[in-house]
Amino acid sequence: MKDELAVQAAAQGDDDAIRAILVRLCQATHMGFAAVARVTEDRWIACQVLDKIAFGLEPGAELEVQMTICNDIRQTENYVVIDHVDADIAWQRHPVPRFYGFKSYASFPLILSDGSFYGTLCAIDPEPRLISNAATVATIEGFANDVTTILSAKLCAAPESISASASRPQAG
């Protein structure tokens, strides 16, 4: 049974515009899996998923956050793009690509309009994909901005649905 945060994440991702963005992301990158994920210090929850490679996740499903690159993105708020895990010295021995079996990966942070980190827009594929070029990175970044706009509007309408654990400490 899904808890409240998982139910909220799936509800937040239940949006035709977000589904359309995932379709466009897969088309632009030639990758077979794309997702919007809610990422907190201790949770990775799928909000919306497009899965053409039988990765096996659906909205509300969870991965162990420590076994995700999205967790690194949560900590740094920087995107990660990998064309070919085996050819990238920084990633070829990393446990996450090995564990999930992907060769290409892209993930961009979703920073809400209030400045808080929500999660990531991510894509994976079991085959290498040329996605690190400037045009593709800019395209994915645009998709992430579009998702952030949608989520910010939803959460502004229902602010209680974002947990305090997602908010960054404010300088003061």
Describe this structure in words.
This protein starts with a helix and ends in a 15-residue tail after the last helix. The relative contact order is 0.18. Helix 2 runs antiparallel to helix 5 (134-157). The protein has a six-stranded antiparallel β-sheet with strand order 3-2-1-6-5-4. A hairpin with a 4-residue loop joins strand 1 (33-39) and strand 2. It is an alpha+beta fold and 172 residues long. The chain is built from five helices and six strands. The longest helix is centred in the last third of the chain and has 24 residues, at 134-157. It has a single domain, classed as Beta-Lactamase (2-Layer Sandwich), CATH 3.30.450.
CATH superfamily: GAF domain
Describe the largest sheet.
6 strands, antiparallel
Q: What does the radius of gyration come to?
A: 15 Å
* Termini separation: 40 Å
The residue ranges in which pLDDT falls below 50 over 5 or more consecutive positions are 161-172
Keywords:
Beta-Lactamase; alpha+beta; single chain; globular; 22% strand; 6-stranded antiparallel sheet; disordered C terminus; 172 residues
Please sum up the structure shown.
This protein is of the alpha+beta class. The protein is built from 5 helices and 6 strands; from the N terminus they run ααβββαβαββα.
